[in-house]
Amino acid sequence: MSNSRRFVSKLFQNFGRVEPEGSSQTCQSQILMQYNDIVESCHSGCYVMLPFGQRALDKLVRVVDEEMQAIGGQKISLPTLAPAKLWKKSERWDDALNELFTLKDRHNVQYCLGPTHEELVTNLMAMYSPISEKRLPIKFYQITRKFRDEMKPKHLLLRGREFEMKDMYSFDASESEARETYDIVCESYSRLFSRLELPFAKVEGATGNIGGSISHEFHLMSSVGEDKLLFCEKCSFRSNSELVKDQSTVCPTCDADCQLRTSPGIEIGHTFLLGTKYSSVFKSTCMKSDRGIDLTHMGCYGIGVSRLLQGSVEVLSSENKIRWPRLIAPYQICILPHKGIKAAAEQYLATSLTLSDALNVMPNLKHEVVIDDRQQISLGKRLFDAKRLGYPYIIVVGKRIQENPPIFEIIETSTNESHFLSIDSLKDFLSTVETI
Ligand SMILES: [Zn+2]
């Protein structure tokens, strides 16, 4: 039982670091995450996920997994080393070369560290071709490290050179079925971002080096975003400004005096309806009952998972307090025993340990509870620390535990509301907390 107790004094946390004078950090989430020991910047465009950051990232990966599995996604894992031969076959090597990390093995065979995997996955499908149309659609996905030699890495995880990405690739028997699959994946993206309580927008996007006929981008609305988005208030026109000719701010589908609203966004997802661009090159085919062998119709769908993690903190937090999407907070609950003197202090700590044990056996709260046992520090200071780190729930154990029944104060940090509850009511209250 006691192994499940987590003490703040033992966590890699609360080093009390502050942003140095004249530091070049320019966005709120970078300051919050770096100086609260969530993520450490390592070298250009690369970072270390510290324990709190890794816990949040692991949870985010589980949420993404759930949503991908819910639409029939089948998880795979492709190699990070992608042969140049395949990228040359799809004629992407030369165009993408500036942003690829390339290397050669001892036999002088050239590779890149994959930034995206259309070539490898379509080549995989070709090995099983022709595949019966009865098996389609196939939706492969993976959540792995990707690499891009960014000209200007910045804002920590928002624009890194090595990052966590979810990439899905769909294969269908016809264009219309591929379009249906495309819509289903886009809907799952909207569900995912809604579950994370994020303000997001879906806009038309550019197809760029990946290609295809239809593309959408999902953005978090934030002034830190490097993309400029255009919205029409009268019709459904929503687009990345890259797609609009001459940087016009007039809606292309409405009348001439309909001005578009512009807003910056952080791109967190990008979807492409690819058609047969890759399947024709690699010969990914399917067997149809009526028409024999035909090329598969593809889609590809990315989510920048590590960027989404920091982007969430960017849009949800205030200047000095981290706020996570509640579902992925590193820990859900922080228990704060009052300082007290001698016997009282011991009683507050002992009650906190018992409370932690009681919560840890609840199915939704296993490993979600920490105890801030630093009783030499004032309650006010520790309360400030707990709010700063964004635990969704803080439970204060103080004088009122001497009442009959004992009373605990629980603070919901999203609303800053306090409730005074007995242990039974507290457990009822917390039994509804959704965790992953
Ligand atoms: Zn319009």
UniProtKB/TrEMBL annotation:
GO biological process, one term: prolyl-tRNA aminoacylation
GO molecular function (one): proline-tRNA ligase activity
Domain Aminoacyl-transfer RNA synthetases class-II family profile: 59-325
Highest taxon of source: Eukaryota
InterPro entries: aa-tRNA-synt_IIb, aa-tRNA-synth_II, aa-tRNA-synth_II/BPL/LPL, Anticodon-bd, Anticodon-bd_dom_sf, Pro-tRNA-ligase_IIa, Pro-tRNA_synthetase, ProRS_core_prok
Catalyzed chemical reaction(s): tRNA(Pro) + L-proline + ATP = L-prolyl-tRNA(Pro) + AMP + diphosphate
Top-level EC class as recorded in UniProt: ligase
Keywords: Aminoacyl-tRNA synthetase, ATP-binding, Ligase, Nucleotide-binding, Protein biosynthesis
Keyword Protein biosynthesis annotated: yes
EC number: 6.1.1.15
Cellular-component GO terms for this entry: mitochondrion
Protein name: Probable proline--tRNA ligase, mitochondrial
Organism phylogeny: Eukaryota, Metazoa, Spiralia, Lophotrochozoa, Mollusca
